[in-house]
TrEMBL record:
<feature type="binding site">
    <location>
        <position position="53"/>
    </location>
    <ligand>
        <name>NAD(+)</name>
    </ligand>
</feature>
<keyword id="KW-0520">NAD</keyword>
<feature type="binding site">
    <location>
        <begin position="242"/>
        <end position="246"/>
    </location>
    <ligand>
        <name>substrate</name>
    </ligand>
</feature>
<dbReference type="InterPro" id="IPR036220">
    <property type="entry name" value="UDP-Glc/GDP-Man_DH_C_sf"/>
</dbReference>
<comment type="similarity">
    <text>Belongs to the UDP-glucose/GDP-mannose dehydrogenase family.</text>
</comment>
<feature type="binding site">
    <location>
        <position position="187"/>
    </location>
    <ligand>
        <name>NAD(+)</name>
    </ligand>
</feature>
<feature type="binding site">
    <location>
        <begin position="106"/>
        <end position="110"/>
    </location>
    <ligand>
        <name>NAD(+)</name>
    </ligand>
</feature>
<dbReference type="InterPro" id="IPR014027">
    <property type="entry name" value="UDP-Glc/GDP-Man_DH_C"/>
</dbReference>
<feature type="binding site">
    <location>
        <begin position="28"/>
        <end position="33"/>
    </location>
    <ligand>
        <name>NAD(+)</name>
    </ligand>
</feature>
<feature type="binding site">
    <location>
        <begin position="289"/>
        <end position="295"/>
    </location>
    <ligand>
        <name>substrate</name>
    </ligand>
</feature>
<dbReference type="Pfam" id="PF03721">
    <property type="entry name" value="UDPG_MGDP_dh_N"/>
</dbReference>
<dbReference type="InterPro" id="IPR008927">
    <property type="entry name" value="6-PGluconate_DH-like_C_sf"/>
</dbReference>
<comment type="pathway">
    <text>Nucleotide-sugar biosynthesis; UDP-alpha-D-glucuronate biosynthesis; UDP-alpha-D-glucuronate from UDP-alpha-D-glucose: step 1/1.</text>
</comment>
<dbReference type="GO" id="GO:0005634">
    <property type="term" value="C:nucleus"/>
</dbReference>
<feature type="binding site">
    <location>
        <position position="282"/>
    </location>
    <ligand>
        <name>substrate</name>
    </ligand>
</feature>
<dbReference type="GO" id="GO:0006065">
    <property type="term" value="P:UDP-glucuronate biosynthetic process"/>
</dbReference>
<dbReference type="Pfam" id="PF00984">
    <property type="entry name" value="UDPG_MGDP_dh"/>
</dbReference>
Amino acid sequence: MSSPPDSAIYIPDMQSLPSRVRTICCIGAGYVGGPTCSVIALKCPHIKVIIVDVNPLRIDAWNSEKLPVFEPGLDDVVRRCRGRNLFFSTDIDAGIREADLIFVSVNTPTKTSGVGKGFAADLHYVEACTRRIASVATSSKIIVEKSTVPCRTAASMRTILESNTSETEDGKQITFQILSNPEFLAEGTAIRDLYNPDRVLIGSLDTREGKMAAHALREVYENWVDGSKIYETGLWSSELSKLAANALLAQRISSINSLSAICEATGADVSEVAHACGLDARIGPKFLKASIGFGGSCFQKDILNLVYLSESLGLTEVAAYWHQVILMNEYQKSRFARKVVQTLFNTITMKKVAVLGFAFKKDTGDTREAPAITLCKSFRQEKAFISIYDPKVPREQILLDLTEPGVVDDFEAVRAQVTIAPSPEEACRDAEAVVICTEWDEFAQKAEDEWRGIYATMKKPAFVFDGRGVVDAQTLRKIGFRVHTVGKGPQIIDPIWA
Ligand code: UDX
Ligand code: ADP
């Protein structure tokens, strides 16, 4: 370390930040980091992109023909760039050292213990990786928060980095600039969203260095995104905008789901109500599809974060307001599960229930917070036999999701009660009811004859509970099914539901 001059104030000789990004390291090869940085590699062939992860199995999978994340279009992107300017590695330190810019894309699950349990985000992965950057970096870097994080995480990262900085070989102090660049991609359409984002948000400190770092990141995106879509804000606005966007989207779903309960009780049709409301340009048609409830890794986690933040700020009413969005989602799932049991003459004990779709939405193999998990767990409690078919979720993942952690012998119990079927037809054979949990195209596009075949193999009366509004209820009723669709009133159409 160069010794401070004798004068009163010591101003360290800082190594300047990279003004152009030539190498990017992404820490965390998950659903966010993997697709995002693969697309950056595709669109910026002059930039070297290294995606690193602590999990060697994940990295092996990224380097194989079977990627660890199913996302339409992703295989093609990876195939075109891997080995050219896109690399997957477990050598985190080498990735950090080589990079001008580092995306932090590690997981931030909801805390399951300690202060903020059940609400606050668990930031220990973010902290571990920030400390790692501080300890191994040998040059100044731009650090970009990509993971969804609570507001002011950048401030904590900055404190850690500034308290642990070292020097370059020629005695200059290493500097870090932190940016917030939240990801707005939705699973299933991630590649499309990355190619053509509604907006790219870059939050930075309002300082010369902060703005320079934001500019360097802007230049990366400008390789394919129109500059007018890149919106620069302050750090805190950017962090809060991510939580706010997800909360507003989830709020729409809970709102329409609350109306679906009224529709079912009155004979109104929620899709007609949604359409009628969505025609108002101020409301718009998107995110108004009633369902068995929203899932996914973001909505619940981000709202819980917002609730925790509001509580921490003493804003109790604000916290209660957003918490209601989650409570409505829980209500929707349990209401649907209750409907199944009540309709099957108040018991599903020892009955076979076929579950079609396990992922939290179509075109993904992700099951985080999938409504199917809540439903199947409640069917398990009712002692039903459950047969599940999903085109993308691996068998072991389903069984893992349905095993109660800490319950003795539950591993075996799940396997006795739950079977994974190779096709919808096999799942439905001898079943009393079909419960549709994911809107996979193959369910929506099933031909009348195929449903007729399924009907023939089921116990009678054969019920269909459409949690996603994907099947043509009239056609199925013609075959003989008794059909319940979320948000469609029964009285007028079919007296059995009255
Ligand atoms: C969401 C946000 O859309 C995305 O911007 C953010 O970056 C991450 O979180 P994702 O969770 O991948 O993306 O999927 P999304 O399409 O938003 O769906 C979330 C859940 O809401 C799914 O379970 C989906 O089935 C459900 N949903 C969505 C509805 O029930 N009704 C709708 O109208 C829309
Ligand atoms: P997301 O949906 O936010 O991408 P994932 O769980 O799919 O979340 O991915 C996060 C990835 O981050 C995981 O593969 C995990 O192994 C990785 N990870 C977590 N902590 C670290 C760390 N300190 N260093 C490197 N990788 C990490």
